[in-house]
Amino acid sequence: MLFWIFFLILPTYAIHPSQIECFGVLGDSISAGFSMQSHSILKDLYEYRGQAFASGGLPNFPTIPNIFLQNYPNLQINQSCASFAKTFITHSLNQYQQNHSFNFHNSIIINELENSGDVNCNVAISGALSNQLEQMWNNLQEEWQSFQCTNRWKLLTIMIGANDICEYCINGFNNTVDTYIFNMEQLLKNIVGQSEKMFINVVSTFDVSLTQDWQHIDCDAIHYLINECPCILGRNRQKNAKEKVGELYKVINHKLIGLIEKYKNKKENIEMSLQPILEDFKIYNQSYLSSLDCFHPSEFANKIMATILWNNMFLPPEKKMTNMEFLQPLYKPTENDFLQ
Q: Could you tell me the pTM of the whole model?
């Protein structure tokens, strides 16, 4: 009897964390680690991918790949497609300008700033909307192929939607929801149809309007200059943004639950889970936010996000953590633990 109970509560294919050999990330500037260590727009328009919570491979940072390595020392981190890069955001400027009326002139950017390290499988694009998921997915498949990850067990983290929400006043409330869910469904359909051996973390959306309360004049200048999060902080900011966004992200997350349920059992060796690490997101002090724009998560916040995401992968849906108040102890998996 106990055997059957244990069997019934396991996912379609029980994936032990020790099986994971490769990593990948689809997302926007949050996943790319934009400005997590930045202080000045003239010097620090960088994405710190090597330290970003879901993909970073640089040592001494509590990222998801490094936490796997800490628990499973046989993991070949340099062959896992983890990111070691620090990338200058000019690689995304054209797309950002197209999406967000970005009018920052390249001529004032300091020329000697250069990229360092390998982006690898963190293919997140700063400024990305959910309609760019297909492009990112195609890029990720190419990266995985180059790392010979196609037939190895992979952990994919998808975190996107902040920019869709930030433009709700331009695209419309209902259209924002419908477009986001459509793009996510197309992505999941492609993943299931084109891939094997994968556990997928879908990080739910969060209330980005909470950052309004932590702005100051320097950060406001950044928002105006690049029209960052236009309907909440940028040039199109709305007086009722908090009310609208507070409702919008909840509607999206509710629909995401159904979407995950629809696709999670479509293929035996692909499992997915909704990870609500920021669903009840609160900002407790300025240390949670980038000092560049008071909007993106800081290095400290990235540490907390990695810790909560790791711990959540071993918790059932009803017990998953939904806030990042403080750094928690990392869970130590046993041989009987499976990703969920």
A: 0.90
